[in-house]
Every structure is written in structure tokens, then in C-alpha cells.
Amino acid sequence: MSRTDELYAELTRMLRETAVLGSCSSALGWDEQTYMPAGGAGFRSEQLGMLAGMTHERATSSRIGELLSELESSSDIGDPDSDRVVNIREARRNYTRATKLPRRLVEELSRTSTLAQQAWVKAREDAEFPVFLPWLEKMIALKREEAQAIGFGDGVPYDALLDDYEPGMTTAEVASVFGPLRDELVRLVTAIHHSPRRPKVEILERHYPKIPQIVVSEAASKSIGFDFSRGRIDASAHPFCSGFGPGDCRLTTRYNDHHFPSAFFGVLHESGHGIYEQGLPTDSFGLGIGQADSLGIHESQSRMWENFVGRSRPFWTYMFPTVQQAFPVALADVGFEDFYFAINDVRPSFIRVEADEVTYNLHIMLRFEMEQQLIAGDLKPADVPGVWNEKFSQFFGLAVPNDALGCLQDIHWSAGLLGYFPTYALGNMYSAQFFEAARRDLGDLETAFAAGQFRPLKEWLNDKIHRHGKRFPAKRLVEEVTGEPLSYKPLITHLQRKFGDLYGLTS
Amino acid sequence: MSRTDELYAELTRMLRETAVLGSCSSALGWDEQTYMPAGGAGFRSEQLGMLAGMTHERATSSRIGELLSELESSSDIGDPDSDRVVNIREARRNYTRATKLPRRLVEELSRTSTLAQQAWVKAREDAEFPVFLPWLEKMIALKREEAQAIGFGDGVPYDALLDDYEPGMTTAEVASVFGPLRDELVRLVTAIHHSPRRPKVEILERHYPKIPQIVVSEAASKSIGFDFSRGRIDASAHPFCSGFGPGDCRLTTRYNDHHFPSAFFGVLHESGHGIYEQGLPTDSFGLGIGQADSLGIHESQSRMWENFVGRSRPFWTYMFPTVQQAFPVALADVGFEDFYFAINDVRPSFIRVEADEVTYNLHIMLRFEMEQQLIAGDLKPADVPGVWNEKFSQFFGLAVPNDALGCLQDIHWSAGLLGYFPTYALGNMYSAQFFEAARRDLGDLETAFAAGQFRPLKEWLNDKIHRHGKRFPAKRLVEEVTGEPLSYKPLITHLQRKFGDLYGLTS
Question: B 31-70 residues with CB below 8 A of A?
């Protein structure tokens, strides 16, 4: 064993241990959202705060700094795209980021996040923003402190937070791609608004009992390739995917007896995340190669299965008979075309996670603007409901009836996930690019989907994206896989074609 | 603040942190038994092994030793029964025990326990002892090593393990109280065997759908005082109670569609444990005063609610109408007396956790004998099925049809819990003594139970037992509460009277 090999072995052992400790927090976090009794909140926050502090201590151990410096200066570490060099590069990135954050701030963020989420659940239930306000104020103050501690070069403070979720992406770059996409989307939404065609959405608001909802959504998840021997689906207030570690990936969804799409498409969405997590190389757990590339790439996987597959005509050619059988009352008199049009209804609405493929991105743009202002200090947390409602009216032409349908709808701010939202829209763009590339590589995917064959697409994603972990930063990954740089055009082309057909638009 | 106060504050802070870390293992252990997908087993074992090692490292920190020595030698620590002195005494006991165990052994026990439990689940499902044998061998070897490391004075190696669960109790003391109890039990079982009366047990083996089973067992748990805002009940292969920490106590049970008592009495039993956990002083979490006294005392609480309350005539006077309404088909033609007799059926049977009040203790005596031999090295793990079946035939006059109904039925050996079983029978004895004392103190409990009033008994237990934690070692607690030393007589008197009536025995 060479000196470099020895140092590298020590580094990977330390990184894996830190990741194992971090995975304990993931498991406790999952339990908090799914099964924990209300009375356990205070103590859970103590547990998570302690684990966060211990994880941070390990992640910032000076020994890691020493190992990295020695490895980076050695001549025989390997090819820049090799597992080893990638793992060292990512370890350096994390180490630099972590050592910039004082332990006190890390622990306080963890504690605040747990308690703020409890307050948010209550505030959302009662549509009472004041219940959440003190926690939002505390969280924004902590995140501003975090941005200062991380630093942001010549950019804006928001860059420091965005970079945590989408490495290498800046606020300005996001704004530059959101701009033209927004113009095109507004044009499309307006055209749809003027179309005389309207789906019968009441079809989806009939009574859909919970048990068959669980059965069909789990069947769909299984058919697209989520492995239930290494994962499961539970219910929570806000759907999420948490990959605990090798062999254990948890998804959640929420069931609404009178809105079929909530759970069904929620499950497809989270299954896309889960299939990505399950496709990461397990022997590289805790290392760059064993981790998802960026949140934007993660979201591209969920949107791929939720929208490009799950809301497509061939998917429903396969799935509709099963769903119709599961809900014999609600769907007795419903034909395929009406159902397919209803699940692709486009119209301005209040809740982001239930928004259609077209308006969804406008929800993101609203949050992106507000987050920048909150972090810059140009918007006071107390003014959030007012500003939200004003912007919402501008973007969607709708008056927000209460904060549960407005600024209290998302878990992100209570959990400290500022800078996260833009990655959802980036994911939609990546997703469209990947799907175009998959069709080029694999040929007629539509016929396969209609026959319930999703494995070719899943294995293509496993091979092109999942197995690489963080080998290529997101922007380069897109080029490696599609041959093109990041672009909003495949997304808008897809939307124009699909909804042009459905709404009978002339382009 | 005096010097003693400062040292004590530092000690309690360290102990609480260690307990918080340990509570993360409890939560992961609960998840492992309830929701974890099979594929997560290997990684879970890695998580738990790491946490166990870290907890052990903290528990054995030399700083704790220094603080204890200084505190023990200070003149102003307080009254021997005060919170402070008790907490110091218990910290010393744990520190001494923990420092005797090498970290390697602790980690290996934790890892082995996780993997052995997975193997046990599979072995039990398929009634395939050989699947479990290599893990049993490994576990027994590790527990023998543990006994040697702990030491056992002039006693036997088993003493070292027993003392972990029932502090201050020796193998010889247990044997001396089990002896006369066993003679009396055999006499009672024989008398029952010769009685012409037999309950109609098929009543309980009709179809009891799972959902109403959940509803009635949770209602019963709530009515006796388990607080669902600070706890919950889930399903697992083997029922247990795990108090994670302040405000969060988890119970589990298993549902059998064709055996009503399994889940219902399982829930009452675990609720008894849970009420104890919920009654511990939360501000002493991690300290002696905040912890349950001994496993025997813990079991006395579960048996109190399961048997002395839950299988009593007045409890069913209150509960029977609700249960009959929940199972209108199964119980349509069943009268109170038949139901009450059926749930108090006494007959030799294979499964300990489903055994009746009388034969239950014989199951324990069998395991107590075998464990002593395993730990002494007088019994090879490979010979366990043969010896089990032979003893079972002696004790119960029954031939064990397969190992799932024999030596594979309990989780304990796979989890490394050797020395634990005797505490179940001690708990039955303590329970009878406590119940006698409660009736002396509170008067007519039967009328209260028949009216659904369980709060007087619960509050008496809270006051006499729960709030004290480990203030009094178990033997002294029994004397403090009942005025008498440990005795098997209240138990046998209760059994003779209750089953004498049911089976029409002449004494």
C-alpha cells in the first residue's frame, strides 16, 4: 500500500463514520415527520441538536484537513474524473464549507429547525401566521449569519445558500435562465386560459378511499422500479424522500380522500428521488461518488417519473385500467380521455406541490424572489404574508384566501432550507433535457410505457446519472448525458407540444 | 454555588448527554423492529454499533470517574435517600460496570445483536433453528466474555448478567424463591387439570378483524392511563415498550386475526410498562431518579395492568360491552361469564407471551435453568432445541412440534438479553404484593374498575413507585411500599383464590 493509498483509506474511513452518524439524524428526522407523538418534540430537538453538533465536530476535524492537504499535493492520486479524485474534491468542498460554520451556529440551526417545524405544523393547521413568525424571524437571522460565515465572493448573500444545494450555480445564473422561461410560460398559460377546452376536474375530486390509494400508488411506485425491499412509503404532513443509507430509503406522501392526484403523483415524484438514492453506489456511502449530484439533478429524477412518465398518455394507457378497478365508484363513468385531460389540467392554483407542470415553475419564481429579499434583509419576516399575497396576485391573478394556502404552505423555511426552491425549477429543465436524450438513445419509449415497461428508462438513468454520484458537477453532467449545456428550451418545447395538443392551441 | 454543587452539575450534564445519545439508539432500535425494510439491516447494525461505541466512550470517560470520587468524598452531599445521593450512587454503579467492559466487546455485542435479531426473525418464520445457531453461538460466547469481564464474586457467572437487570439479586436468591413457588404452581395446575370445568376457548379464536382490535386495545390503554400525546402503539414481531426519553414512549404489539388475547393483553401489558416510563421524573432524565428501578419492578407494572386489572372480573364488567360492540359477529352469542372464563383459561401451552397467569411462571423457570447452563458452558447452543424440548415435556407434559413454538419463540437471546427472563417472574411476585398494598391503601378498587375508574390505582403507582425512579433498590422498594419483604405468597394466594373460584377447586 502506497503512502497515498494509506492516507486515502484513513480519509474514507473518517468520512464514512461521519456519514453514518449523520444518517442517525436522518432516521430521527423521518420519525419526527411520520410517527413521533407531539409530546416528543422538545426531546427530539435535543437529540437532533446533539447529533448535529457531533457530526459537525467530526466533519471539521483538523485531521481531515491534514489528510486532504497531503492527498491534494501527492502526484499519484489519479485521473480527475476517477472515484478517488472526485471523493477528495468533494471532501474538500464539504470541509471548507463546514469549517466556516461555528459549532454553535450548527447546533442552533438544528434545534431551531426542529422547534420551528413543530410551530409551522400548528400554524399551517390553523392558518395562523403569527404562531410561526417568531420562528421565521429566528431562522432568517440564522441563515443570514450562515451566508456571512460561508461568504459569497463578488456575488450576493443568497449565493452562499444556493451553492449548498446546487454547487457552482449563482443567483445571477438562475435569474438569467428563469427570465426567458417565465416569459414563455406566461405566454403558454395565457393561451391555455383563452382556450375553450377545459378538463372535467371534478372527476379527481370524488371520493377516493385511502386504502386503494395506498395500493395503487405503491403498485405504480413498484412498477417504475422503486425497490420496496430497500425502502418504504409512509404518510407525513409534507412529502419527502430520505435516503438513510445503503439499503434503506424512506418516502412519504399525504393522502386526500377527495383529491386523487395528491398522493398518486406525490408517490411517483418521491419514487423518482428514491430510485436515484437506490441507484447510488452503496460501497461509496459517505463519499462524493456515493452521493446525489445536486438537488437540481435530484429533482430532475423525481420530475422525470412524475411528469415525463407519470402524466404521459402511454403511462396511463398502462395504468388506467388498474386505477379504474381500484375506484369502481369514483371512476365508473369516466373514460380514458377525460381522466388523462383531468390529470393534466392547467390553471393557476394556490398550492405549489399540487400545481400543474406549467404553472409550477411560476410558484418557484415567486419564492426565489422573496428568499433573495429575506436573505438580503430587504424584506422583514413580518411582511411575508403581505408581500406573498401581492406577488401571488401579480403572478397568478388570484387573491390568497389565507396563509395556509399562501406563505405557510411549505416546510422549507421552517426547516432552514433557504436557497432550495430554485433547484425545483432547475430540475424541471434538466429533466426535459434528460428525457430528450433518453428518447434519442432508447428509441420508442412510449410503446414500452404503454406496456408497463419502465426498466429501460430506469436502467438508462442508473447508468448515465445515478452510478456517477457527484463525479460530474451538475452543469457538466447535463453536457455529458445530453451533449448540450443547460437550457430551458427542451422544457418549454415539451410543455408547448403536450398542452398545445390537449388545449388545441395553434402555435 | 458550592464546590459540591458545581461538580454535581457537571456530572449530571455529562450523564444527560450520554443518555440523549443512548436514546438515539432506542429510536433506531424501535424503527428496526417496526418499520425498517429488510434491506436496511446491515446498515442499521453499523449505525447502532457506532452509537453504542460512542455512548460507551462517554459513559466510561475518566472525567466521570474523577467527579464521582470527588463527590463521594465530600461531606455535604446530603441524605442517603436524596435525589443527589441516589444519582451519584447509580452513576457509580453504571460507571463501574461500564469501565469493566472493553469498547470492542460493547461494539461487537451491539452489531451481533442487530444481525442476530434479523437471523432470528427469519429462523422463527421458517422454524429453522440452524439459521439462528451460528448467531446464538456468537452471542453466548460474547455474553460469557461479558460475565467474566464484569466479575461475580463468590457466585456464578450468571450472577454478573442477572445483576444488570435486577441489581442486587443473585442466582441463588432467585432459585430460592422460584423453588417453593414452583411446587405450589404445579399443585395448582394439577388441581385445575382435574377440574371438570373448562372454558370455551374457541370464543377467542373466532375472526377478530385487525382494525377493531386496534381500536379497542388503544381505548383500553387510554382508559388505564397511557398518555397518547406522549406515546404511541405500533406493530412488531415481538411486543415491547421503549421509553425514548421525556415525552416519547413507544409500545408495540402483534395482531392475530384469530386470537383476540394476543394484541389486547399485549397492549395492556406494554401500557403498564409505558405508564411507568411516563411516570418517571422527566427533569431527571439520564439520572438514577429518572430511571426505572429494575426490570422486575418494571414487569410488576405491566403485570399489574395486564393481569391484576386486565384479567379481573370488574375490568370486564366495564370493558365487555365495548368489546362486544367492536366484534358483533365473533361475540354475538357470547355471554359475560363465558368470555371472562375464556380469557382466564389455564392450560399448558407453547408460547410464553400467550401463557396464562398460572403456567407463565413455569416458562420462566425453564429459561432460567437453561440460561444458567449456557452461561456456565454446561450446555452447547447446538443442543438447545433438544434440551428445550425435553424440559418442556417435563414441565408441561407437551411435545414441542417445532422450534418456532419452542426455543425460537423469544427475541431475548438474539438481542443478547441473557439474565433477563427471571425478572418476569420476580415482577409477577412484586405485582401481587403491590396490588395487595394498593387495596389496603385505596379500599374498594373493584367498584372503581367496574365503573372504568383506573386513575386512583395509576396515581397510587405514580406516587409510591414511579416518581422515585431508582431511589430505593427493588428489594427495599417492596418493603417501603408494602411493609413486607419480597414474597411469593401474595402471588400464589391471588392465583389460588381467583382460579379456585373459576375452576371450582376446594382448597
Answer: 31, 35-44, 46-47, 50-51, 54
User: What was the pLDDT predicted at B235?
Assistant: 96
State the smallest CA–CA distance between residue B496 and chain A in angstroms.
42
B231: contact with A, CB 8 A cutoff = yes
Q: Residues A289-337: pLDDT tens digits? A: 999 999 999 999 999 999 999 999 999 999 999 999 999 999 999 999 9
Q: Give the gap in angstroms from C-alpha B334 to the nearest C-alpha of chain A.
A: 32
Q: How far apart are CA B45 and CA B22, in angstroms?
A: 15
Cβ-based neighbours of A172, under 8 Å, separated by 6 or more: A155
A209: contact with B, CB 8 A cutoff: no
Task: Enter the C-alpha cell of residue A77.
Answer: 492520486
Structure-block grid coordinates of residue B460: 397510587
Q: Which of B30, B32, B248 is the mutation pick for testing A, counting most A CBs within 10 A?
A: B248
Q: What is the ipTM of this complex?
A: 0.90
Residues B256, B207: Cα–Cα separation, whole Å: 9
The domains of chain A, with CATH numbers, are: 3-155 (no CATH), 171-503 (1.10.1370.30)
Q: Which amino acid is residue B54, in one-letter code? A: M
Which residues in chain A touch residue B232, judged by CB atoms under 8 angstroms apart? Answer: 35, 37
Pairing of strands A241-245, B231-235: unpaired
Strands across the sheet containing B248-253: B231-235, B248-253, B241-245
Q: How is residue A401 annotated by DSSP? A: -
H-helix or E-strand containing A251?
strand A248-253
B residues 232-251 closer than 8 Å to A (CB): 232, 234, 244-248
pLDDT class for A338, splitting at 50, 70, 90? very high
Residue A290 has, within 13 A of its CA and on its CB side, a CA count of 20
Q: Which of A31, A41, A50 sits opposite B20 (nearest CB)?
A: A50
Residue pair B260/B208 in contact by the 8 Å Cβ criterion: yes
Confirm whether B270 is a catalytic residue: yes
Burial B47-63 (b: 16+ CB within 10 A, else e): bbbbbbbbbbebbbbee
**List of chain B residues whose C-beta atoms are within 8 Å of the C-beta of residue A36:** 248
> B140-170, pLDDT tens digit by residue?
999 999 999 999 988 899 999 999 999 989 9
Per-residue pLDDT, A238: 84
The CA-based diameter of chain A, rounded to the nearest angstrom, is: 72
Return the active site residues of A. Answer: 270
Residue A384 makes CB contacts below 8 A (sequence gap 6+) with A129, A136, A370, A374, A407
pTM of the model: 0.91
Measured between beta carbons, the chain A residues lying within 8 angstroms of B51 are 24
Considering only CB atoms, A232 lies closest to which of B35, B229, B231, namely B35
Question: Can you tell me whether residue A248 is helix, strand or coil?
Answer: strand
Name the residue among A37, A51, A247 with its Cβ closest to that of B229.
A37
User: Quick one: closest CA in B to A49, which residue?
Assistant: B20
Catalytic residue among B270, B299, B371, B436: B270
All three cell numbers of A374: 429575506
Quick one: three-class SS letters along B412-449? CCCCCCCCCCHHHHHHHHHHHHHHHHHHHHHCCHHHHH
Compute how many other C-beta atoms are within 10 angstroms of the C-beta atom of residue B362: 21
Search chain B and give the residue with CA nearest A231. Answer: B37
3-state class of B235 per DSSP? strand
As a 3-state breakdown, chain B gives helix, strand, coil percent values, each rounded to 5, of 70, 5, 30
User: What tens digit of pLDDT does each residue of B312-325 get?
Assistant: 999 999 999 999 99
Q: What one-letter code names the amino acid at B23?
A: S
Which of B50, B244, B248 is closest, CB to CB, to A21? B50
Q: Do B248 and A44 touch (CB under 8 A)?
A: yes
